[in-house]
Specification:
There is one protein chain. With 326 residues, the chain is of the alpha/beta class. The chain has helices at residues 28-32, 56-69, 75-83, 103-108, 125-133, 179-192, 215-226, 236-246, 265-282, 287-302, and strands at 92-97, 116-122, 145-151, 167-171, 196-209, 250-255, 258-260, 307-318. Strands 1, 2, 3, 4, 5, 6, 7 and 8 form an eight-stranded mixed β-sheet that branches. β2, α5 and β3 (145-151) form a beta-alpha-beta unit. The longest helix is centred in the C-terminal third of the chain and has 18 residues, at 265-282. The protein is globular and about 60 Å long.
Amino acid sequence: MTTSAGTAASAGATAAVGTTAGAAGAGTAAAASGAVLSMAGRGGDTPAPEGHQYAPQWLELREGADADARAVDLLDPLRIRLANLPGRATALTVHDLGCGTGSMGRWLAPRLDGAQRWVLHDQDPNLLRLAVARAPRAAADGSPVTVTTRRGDIGRLTADDLEGASLVTASALLDVLTREEIEALAAACAGAGVPVLLTLSVVGRVDLVPAHPMDAEITEAFNAHQRASELLGPDAITVACEAFAQQGATVRVHPSPWQLDSRHTALVAEWLRGWVGAACEQRPELTERAEAYLGDRLRANAAGELRAVVHHSDLLALPRPKGGAS
């Protein structure tokens, strides 16, 4: 199975997981407002020009908001499972799917006790190099953290590839996958008996303050854009819950919204350009009105007067453990 690259711009994927890049452009609305869409990538709410991978600048820009949003309430049940894994005396082996610059590892490794070996999966060798260079060195209790890399298509993962894994994790991945890919991921993790923590999946809701009459229309068009090429977009979290439950896993979901305000003006500006641009690509008839809308929103953001809540969900799936997993 080949992971499709997708034209949708999600609120989250942190690394290239497909074999081709999406065809989504910056959008005429952004161009008309003088906005330059500089941060390409499938996912991340920024449409990717043809042939582009994820830009490290975009991943770095959003890392703080991602870290603040992830659901720490899911960590206690995860820690309990990890503490009771067979062979727990050895180091944890964590597979990070679509690792990008390694932000998930920087967030999670210092929140888990014990020695850890992270296996970083990505298609982009440049991102893998950055992830290794910036990898955390110590766990919560000071135990060592080491990293290795694995370049390839995560859509082809099987239970055999996860042999010996203690945990599979990813950030903002689900919404840029197809139903087939999510079902295959659930089957692979269940087959290996490995718990899964998947953070920052968009759910199709955005709240902006002050409100604007076009907010709902842009949101609807953007969500439709995300579902292009059989990608699930905001439907992904529901499909993933069903897929893991069908594999016999216990599934927990917790909200993990971006809470953006005057501290995040650079991130909000880039997010707005990608969000509106994707909506206009989906519905070109919006373009003229969207130009004025985007200009208004960018000015309010620059003045520190715009607040945005971009809703996500985090998912923890605990399959039945397999004997001998470590």
